[in-house]
Amino acid sequence: QVQLVESGGGLVQPGGSLRLSCAASGFIFSNYDMSWYRQAPGKERELVASISSVGGVTNYADSVKGRFTISRDNANTVYLQMNSLKPEDTAVYYCNARTRRLVTVYDSWGQGTQVTVSS
């Protein structure tokens, strides 16, 4: 059973940094693309950053390019380093694991971690 557990959220001042972690278990981590999404109050969930299972190819939302960095290690953990945080980065951040079998996409989600950027 896929399990994703996020940690590292909290309250930070504008311009500050946070590092989110997502510990994965119950599946072959190296076979899954991993992503971070976020959802602010009253808004739809949006993709923040992703890293592929093959080659570690990364992709970022325009709003976070140059400030956020996604990475993954061999210990079944994916990270999101967030620098130069802005109030508009305030949201619940979710870890996502995705794999494909033939034409079917399988998504799994963590429970989310709150990030609040405020002075």
Global Rg:
14 Å
Q: What's the β-strand tally?
A: 11
Strand content: over 45%
State the low-pLDDT regions, or none. none
Largest sheet: 7 strands, mixed
Derived from helix and strand composition plus strand pairing, the structural class reads mainly beta
How do the helices and strands follow one another from N- to C-terminus? EEEEEEEEEEE
Which shape, going by the Cα principal axes?
Answer: globular
Cα-to-Cα separation, first versus last residue: 40 Å
Average pLDDT level: 96
- The portion of residues assigned to helices is under 10%
Total helical elements: 0
Tell me what you see in this structure.
The protein is mainly beta and 119 residues long. It has no helices and eleven strands. Strands 2, 4, 5, 6, 9, 10 and 11 form a seven-stranded mixed beta sheet that branches. The chain has a four-stranded antiparallel beta sheet with strand order 1-3-8-7, with no helix packed on it. Strand 4 and strand 5 (46-51) form a beta hairpin.
Helix and strand topology:
Elements: E1 3-7, E2 10-12, E3 18-25, E4 33-39, E5 46-51, E6 58-60, E7 68-72, E8 77-82, E9 91-101, E10 104-109, E11 113-117
Parallel strand pairs: 2-11
Antiparallel strand pairs: 1-3, 3-8, 4-5, 4-9, 5-6, 7-8, 9-10, 9-11
Features:
119 residues; mainly beta; 7-stranded mixed β-sheet; 4-stranded antiparallel β-sheet; globular
Provide a concise account of the structure shown:
The protein is mainly β.
